Amino acid sequence: MKTILIIEDDASIQKAYQEKLTKEGFMVMPAINYKEALSQLTSAPIPDCIILDIMLPGGEDGLEILSDIRQYDAWKGIPVLVLTNIDTEKERALSMGVAEYLIKSNTSIDQIAHVVGRLAGE
Questions:
Q1: What sign does the dihedral 84-86-89-94 (CA atoms) show?
Q2: 63-117 pLDDT, tens digit each
Q3: Looking at residue 76, what DSSP letter applies?
Q4: Which superfamily does 3-119 belong to?
Q5: For residue 88, which phi and psi values (nearest 5 degrees)?
Q6: How many alpha carbons fall within 13 Å on the CB side of residue 121?
Q7: What are 80's strand-pairing partners?
Q8: d(C-alpha 14, C-alpha 83), whole Å
Q9: Strand partners for 52
Q10: What b/e sequence results for 52-86 when a residue is b if at least 16 CB atoms lie within 10 Å of its CB, and e otherwise?
Q11: Across the strands, what pairs with 56?
């Protein structure tokens, strides 16, 4: 079973992604901030894909989290899907090795599941 880490602070969006991906056969690890994401990464199986929001609580920047995650050899190769409503960070994200950059409001949950499946190697 492929594992997906979702770093998303909006509870309703987090729940919708989790329900859809679980129905698609993925194991989902939710996190709402950097601390929870690190906890999931260090205590669970290494995810096959990470869904990452950019704007997180307390002024946390998802791309800074990505930069930190990439410092660890075990996590360097995990494909990351940035899923945000900020369209001004795409170049920065892609330059950091993000596999996909999608705008939430322009992307259906079915499209998200398809991309996650492709990135996770389904």
A1: positive
A2: 999 999 999 999 999 999 999 999 999 999 999 999 999 999 999 999 999 999 9
A3: T
A4: Response regulator (3.40.50.2300)
A5: -95, -5
A6: 9
A7: 50
A8: 11
A9: 7, 82
A10: bbbebeeebebbebbeebeeeeebeebbbbbbbeb
A11: none
